[in-house]
Amino acid sequence: MTEELHTPATGTASAGQMIRAARTAQGVHIAALAASIKVSVRKLEALEADRFEELPDATFARALAQTVCRSLKIDPAPVLALLPAPGSVSQLEQVSRGLNQPFRDPADARNGFVGLGFLRRPTVWGPLLLVAGAVVLWSVPSSTWQSLLGRDAEVAAPGVTVEVVPLDPSASANAPASPASEVVSAGQAPSTDAPNPATEGASQAPASAAASAPVVVRTSGESWVEIQDARGRMLVSRLLAPGEELELDGAFPMRVRIGNADGTELRVRGEVFDMAPFRRENVARFDIR
Hints:
It contains ten helices and ten strands. It is of the alpha+beta class. Among the domains are: 15-108, lambda repressor-like DNA-binding domains (434 Repressor (Amino-terminal Domain)), CATH 1.10.260.40; 195-288, no CATH class.
């Protein structure tokens, strides 16, 4: 059994007008027709309005028109005769996508509209992320980076504690040689070792310098000496030559750093100060009171 095809009235009507007239005569809404043949309403509207430049190409327009005629059961020959011939130049050449190809309104391009789909490309958002990261790094104050990355030179190495060395203010300058102080170190028992023979011999040195200054530094070799008093005043901070002697006076407690402990002698109120408990790789750090 063959279907009866109705021949649309041609007259002076265009191909799009013939299709619209046949559809309205049968009472078919354009949206229902688009759904039945699985094509967008815009493409049908472009076909019925003879806006063939909005369709992919002439082949697509003829295929769409033939599909519509078949759905409306009208003869496609008169309609196809009024359509552009296959192979004519068009804006797009995407026949392989078929009738379900997404439609892009050319008016968007004419109005300067640009889609945001390009933002999904790594070549676009990758440099944007790098620029954003550089802006964030540039906006961070330099003091913050120094606090995060820098190390305070005043902080002792891990495992080295700061010792408090109390001294008796009434100690005599001519008192017998004895341990200069009682060392209190966190996590470390007070030292009970016998006095160093070397320091015993050094304690017999004349006490004239000790009488004039509470702290005396003597060096037998090059040594970096840094002493700061309780008021924050730097009494000395330089490299001492061999045989050099310094007499220092300042507020106690004093923070001391000796770069060559083996080649440096420190006398506090006339007594030789034993730096052995505070020595680490020939560098001594301690406080004296």
